[in-house]
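This week, look over our next protein:
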Amino acid sequence: MEIRKVKANENVKDDIGKIALERGPLVYCAEFSDNSGLTGNLLLPENVNLNAEFRPDLLNGVMTLKGSAKAVIISEDKQSVSTRTQDFLAIPYFARSNRGVGEMKVWFPTKIINIDLRSE
C-alpha cells in the first residue's frame, strides 16, 4: 500500500502547513519512545522518504513507517537553535499510548516558519 502525506485543511489554523501520514485506511502518529524522547520538535519535509516496515516485536506486531526527520534542537544554554537529522518512526494511531506517558504527534510541520521565543 502507498504511504500518503495528507495536507491539513487551511481552515484549521493550528495545522496550516502540516501533513499527516496515512497508509491504507490507517492514520499514523509518532510517539516519544520511538523518536529520541520528543515529537514536538520534529519536522517532516513534504519530500521525506518513508518506508513501511512490519515490526513483529513492537506492540504485538504493527506496520510502521520509517525514515528520517529533522529535529529542532535548542542548545543547553538556551541561546541558539539548530536542526539535526534523526531516525523517525511512526506507528498506527490505534496503537498509541501503550508505552508510558510522553509526547505523541499526528500533524507534522513541513518547514520552519516562525519560532516562538519565551522567557521563563
Observations:
- The first strand starts at residue 3 and ends at 7.
- The CA atoms of residues 77 and 86 lie 22 Å apart.
- The beta strands are 3-7, 18-23, 26-31, 42-43, 50-55, 62-74, 81-92, 104-105, 108-109.
